[in-house]
Amino acid sequence: MTGAGTDRTRPRIEGGPAIILVRPQLAVNIGMCARAMANFGLSDLRLVNPREGWPRTGALRKGAYAAAAGAVHLLENAKLFPTLEEAVADLNFLWATTARERGQGKRILPPVNAMAETFAAISNGEAHGILFGPERTGLDNDEVALADAIITFPVNPAYASLNLAQAVLLTGYEWFRASQGDQLPFEAINHSPPAQREMVISFFEFLEGHLETNGFFRPEGKRAVMQRNLRNMFHRMQLTQQDVRTLWGAMVRLVDGPRKEAKTRKRIRQPRPAVKADEAQTGTQTRLTPEDQSS
Fold first, then answer.
1. How many CB atoms lie within 10 A of CB 66?
2. 3-class DSSP assignment, residue 79
3. How confident is the model over 62-80, as pLDDT tens digits?
4. Residue 286: is its pLDDT beyond 80?
5. What is the mean pLDDT of the chain?
6. Fewer Cβ neighbours under 10 Å: the N or C end of the chain?
7. In this structure, what is the dihedral angle of CA atoms 19, 24, 29, 30, given to the nearest 10 degrees?
8. Cis before 134 (ω within 30)
């Protein structure tokens, strides 16, 4: 299963810090974490002693792969470790994510600052990783103690518990911004150029003329202010040529009423020229004269 926006013709963005899920409880959450990683170009998924085992077969596999929504390559390439120490042995720097203050004297940063640091370090050849604890309890104090610094999220203090995949998503988003910038994948396409001032003024004169006829500008002493307010309302819209044509057409119909008949062009089919029998056999065609057609 793939989601909207998936384009397999585009090259994958990969790399980034290792995402280390410590004792994850649900296979479906592993799949959702893989999806979040794929969204933001993270490709190193490590699993430490998952409660339900690694879901490579049966219903667990089906649930995880469905939740990954097309990011199954991350599940296929995920590394499984029996202990956290083995999972982080090759890393130079380790972040621990937690919603609670642990009193361990470590630096505490939001994801935006942490991922800026990690991008700079990875660019210099270091290997970084981020720890995420099990869904119900989060990382324990001994697991946090293995980390160099802490990432925490600015959330509602009365409800600070994040879903595992949400925590990966927020961190991955900041990693992508740090490594790829803030350029959006697409921009609005304006098919019509901005309206020329002459075009806009002509529309104003048409509109204001009919409003005057119908007694809109009353009392007379407020006419100038009302006229300016009306024009400024349209100016704030930054009208395109198509906008003006559409508005003008709508006003014409309000003033003149419905069209009496639709003005559409009908396509007239031209008759095919007749073909002599002997030419039809040879594959050549010659237009017949009226004399030929009557013979």
1. 14
2. strand
3. 888 888 888 889 999 999 9
4. no
5. 86
6. C
7. 50
8. no
| Nearest residue to 277 (alpha-carbon basis) of 257, 295, 263 | 295
Q: Which of 70, 1, 4 has its CA nearest to residue 34?
A: 70
**Mean pLDDT (whole number) for 112-134:** 97
Domain count for the chain, please give it: 2
| Domain final position from 256, 272, 289 | 256
Quick one: which H or E segment has residue 96?
strand 93-97
* Residue 244 · residue 195 · CB < 8 Å: yes
Q: Which residues pair with residue 21 across a beta bridge?
A: 47, 132
> Stretch 105-111: mean pLDDT, rounded?
94
Could you tell me where the DSSP H helices lie in the chain? Answer: 27-39, 58-68, 72-76, 84-87, 111-123, 141-145, 164-180, 197-213, 223-235, 241-256, 277-282, 290-294
Phi, psi dihedral angles at 91 (to 5 degrees):
-95, 145
Asked if residue 294 has pLDDT above 60, the reply is no
- Cβ atoms of 127 and 18 within 8 Å: the answer is yes
Please report the DSSP string for 198-224 in residue order: HHHHHHHHHHHHHHHHTT-S-SGGGHH
Domain match, 220 and 78 both: no
pLDDT at 230: 94
Within a domain: 155: yes
Q: Which residue range forms the structural domain that includes residue 245? A: 197-256
Considering the domain architecture, whether residues 146 and 203 belong to the same structural domain is answered as: no
